[in-house]
Fold these 4 entries.
Entry 1:
Amino acid sequence: MSWPLPPTTRRLVGWLFLIAGFLLLLGVGLRLGVVYYEYQQLGSAALNSTRLILSLMMLVAAMLMLRYGWRERRGNDTVD
């Protein structure tokens, strides 16, 4: 694939990253809501550090996807 991408392809890639980032953010939010509900019901025994670290990593990935998608849509240089 040639670099840089044509403007129409960049906009499409930007939209796809924005949609994927938003859906991942929504999923992580729902997952953290379930973890919080379990914590309220069962106390600290319901917390699992692996699950929380994985959720935080997915949250960071969602924010990076949103950032990349937004920069692609606006036509900014995404190579940092």
Entry 2:
Amino acid sequence: MKHAITALLIATAFVAAPLPSTAQYEKFPFFKCGVPTPYSFPGSSASFGNGTFCGTLAVTPPKNASDPCAKADLRKIEVNINPACDVKNTIVKATINGVPTAVSPSFFVPAGAPEGSVVLRLTQLGLGLGNDGDNICITLSAKTPGATNACTNLESLCQAPPGAAPGTCVAALVDTTLRCCAINEVSPVRPPPRLTCFYLHPRPTPAASTPFIFNSRECKRATDDIRYTIDNQIAAVGAELDDRVTPFHNCSESVASVCWAFSSPAEGAKLQEWAKDLVVRWQLDAIGFLTEFKCYPWLIGHQIEMVFAGYGTYPNLPRGDINANATQDAPPEQANIICTPDLSKMTYPKCTCNTTTFATQFGVQKWMYTYPGRKPTTTLFCFTVLVLNASDPTSPCGRTDKLFKAEIWGDDKQRQKLKGIAVQPAGAKNLTYRSPSWGAPGDQTIKVSQLNWTPQQADGGRICLELESNTDLDSFCLFKLGKTCWINFFDESLACCPLYPSTSIEQLLGN
């Protein structure tokens, strides 16, 4: 019995006592290292995109020529790897001054190291005291294209020491005898992001009554559509973006742009041919050439310029990781097309008069704006009158200096939706309301008579339709494209009646 109790106590003691660590060395490089060596990587590593990272080798022999490591070579470099790195799905290649190393880099688990330790080894380097300034690079990639668990950057590859920035690599530089060895920390540095942008510029020609100007709502709509299309293509081709840059948009009065950054020029090049095709297709789409009227009313008289390039001030743009220009890549007859509506199917106005734009000095702003009506159930849709340069100021129409009346193309079958007409010459404090006035049935004409405005009263004056708030202008105004109404301005002779479109921006952009 006594022997049984003794055996039990001994066994219990072994169970209760902590097991000793099997690791011979607790810290990288997991072997004895610390004798000075001539080799180091001073400064930072450089990232060149596409998973390539480089460091410049510095050779500084000890001042004491009798030092045992004064003439040491550099046989291998070992790097401490993040235990979370999926080394099985990570490919590493190495070059010295652009030439692949004699032996490919490899991952291994060092003997005598704590559990989970992994080291990347570059060996048989064949470097010596004459290799000062050599460029040593590694390129990281995934065995499975597009894999998210591969270690394709230094942040995921290297085990940074406590307190160091992510991506800091700890390397051991070792000679052939394994006696001369030094630990070197290399901090990451990346070149500044290289921005690539898409630019959209509606350029007015003399045929434009007023230049197209982006406001914040138009800018957001345009750039949202552009970014959606480009983001989808980036995802489709698997192009890698620079994680330091959040895509953004800008708008001046005449140029909308969307910008982002690729991780390397090679990633941007994945979209190059697609981008060239896109600017050709969008050249027509942007002006509404594929619609029944061949032109969006708010772009009449404009040419559309589209460019992929670097970040800059339009049109002086640097090259980017994508370069495409509709002016160059589209056929000449398409690149130079001017937004000109096909009005052959318009049946308005019913009267015979000169409807040519710029026939007189009276025109209209391209946007209609909405305001509350006199009742909670009504809304004012307001035209803003402009004074322009008549195309021939010496002609009978061009000499006109009075805006006698206005007429608007509307569906007279929806007369009940029009609750009133309001006018306000420039300088007046308030709107003046009138009862609705229509032409004969079938004329499809809303009349705004007896204005008799001078150019001073007309420039900035407003003519408003008070409509039921649920009215769809594509139905009420008969043009049936882009929430647009057409208005013409008559002189006293009624022989001159230039015709212009104006679009409800609230309805066009979804309020």
Entry 3:
Amino acid sequence: MTVEEHEVLARAEILGEALQQLKDEKDPGEFIRLLTECNTMIRQITGIDYGGVCAPAGGCDCGGKC
């Protein structure tokens, strides 16, 4: 794995931890809005549809595994 790939994974892990904390603090509607914004930014920057890969059908009810 390249240094760049390691950096991307490290930043994704940090984002995941921050989103988990926010999930515990925000109401579900507000959290889904924030998650959608994050997925949009990830798609714009990387070209990867992270939301399509992560979220199960019917919304994000993955128990923090996204």
Entry 4:
Amino acid sequence: MNTRRDFLQSAGIVGAGLLLSNNLFAKNKFEFTSNRPPLAQRKFTSEAVEAAIQRIKKDIPNQELGWLFENCFPNTLDTTVDFEMIDGKPDTYVITGDIDAMWLRDSSAQVYPYLPLMKEDEKLQQLIAGVINRQTKCILKDPYANAFYKDENKISEWKQTDITDMKPGIHERKWEIDSLCYPIRLAYNYWKITGDDVPFDIDWIKAIELTVTTFKEQQRKTSEGPYIFQRNTSWATDGVPLSGYGYPVKPVGLICSMFRPSDDATIFPYLIPSNFFAVASLKQAAEMISKISGDNKFANECTQLATEVNNALKQYAIVQHVQMGRVYAYEVNGFGSFNLMDDANVPSLLSLPYLNAVSSTDPLYQSTRKLLLSSYNPFFFKGTAAEGIGGPHAGMNMIWPLSITMRALTSVNDAEIKQCVQWLTKTHAGTGFMHESFHKDDPKKFTRKWFAWSNTLFGELIMHLHENKNALLKSI
């Protein structure tokens, strides 16, 4: 079965030792040769991205770090995009890497770091407009689905195991709030940078309307809503209890999410980082709707929902920890129960400043961050190779590079940022790429050798440091 879980059990870990046999660590600096596909085999080439790679790599004294950036930053364009024109409109299908399916979350995050380069490359802008157009189609097909196929008639392998309304063209139907937030984040920043409103046509507005409708349904004020999900599986994190509706919640204005951005089931359906993300996304959607379509009534509806969710977060998301004081919970149910942890996948509590949901200097965020990066977070792992956050998806003692990268992107401490980059440089297991996860004591034990989101986000970090902390980058 071609799933993320399979790579945890097979190719990722087993293949790691084989890769190491090629001595890709390149102990001598002159051996750091590109691991990118040959030019003729790349899915898409951007002149602006290539220029950025050369400019930034030349400015990084650490040759291994420069080599990692060269390999990772263009990985989404090199290997995962499928661009074409359909009915005169750009259309871009983006796979995650080793799974031939397009996640709304992953596809948004994979191309997001290229946004600042669009003004220098019209074809790159067109490619990203194509992602927005494809995501609109996906949301209109089913706002509760998280992953889709390019072939809209393809039947998913999960059709045999999942008890849910699975339509052709859908790879997986796990309801995750962030699946509807990420496309807004991508669209908003595309619009802000380019001023181009062509992708935001009547279909896009319908997709936003459907997003708001879905959020309101999952506030579950009057009923449990139309969505159910169960799976015939031995993996507890792949199924939703109580007839597929999940454990009960008290309707308080928060939005239920049956799954986390890791694609693991939530314990308590009010997933706090995803509700924060929804607030930020609804505000962005309101601004776009008001200025592009002039529909102030619908824009106000978006704003009102954002305000309602935000007020509920203030009342229900904050809990008292014995050692750390007031912190954000990861999940709550509105009855007073809560789950204290964090997961590496974004949105996470750690990532809230990155998503413009809270300030990185906010005292409540800082106290929460201190908890997340400590033994009080059951999925924070500290080993001889590195330390970082993982999650149930890859299992115990498995650190996700995503969490280390996000820790650096949200840090206000230069020493911490430097340490994060050093860990990332040391734990690629000689492959020249980031992975889904690696063992805290042995980076050779890793999952998913082709995971484009992790690669591109690492590239975003290096670009960010080059622009904002160049002296720090040069000192690594």
